[in-house]
Amino acid sequence: MFFTTAFREQYWSKSDGWKYHDTCFCEWYGISCNVQLDWNGLSGPIPDEFTELIELKELNLNFNSLDKLPETIYELKQLERLEIGYCSLTSLPSTFGMLESLNYLDVESNKLEKFTR
Questions:
Q1: Architecture of domain 2-106
Q2: What is the pTM of this model?
Q3: Extents of the domains making up the chain
C-alpha cells in the first residue's frame, strides 16, 4: 500500500489494518472515513495517491514531519477540514485554492513563506 511505504510504516506507533488490502479503509487505525494521523511519526511528502480518497472530509496530520502536500490536493473536493499544523511545511501547492469545500484550516507553527487562497 502506498501510504505505508511513503510514510515508512515500520516507524509508526500504530498501523492496525493498513497491511490488509481486503478491508475497507474505514476500519484502518486512525481512519473513520476521516483521516486522523496526528502525532504518528509520519515523514516525507504526502503522496499524490492520498487524493484518491475522494470522499475524505477531514484530514488531520498535525505534528508530523511532512515535506509537502501533493499538487493533486484539489481532487479532495469534499474536504472540509484540514489540520497540518506543526508539520514543518514551507509552502502550499498552487492548487490549494481549489479546495472549494474547505472551511477549517490549521497551519499553525509551520514555516510557510507565502499563503494565497
A1: Alpha-Beta Horseshoe (3.80)
A2: 0.73
A3: 2-106
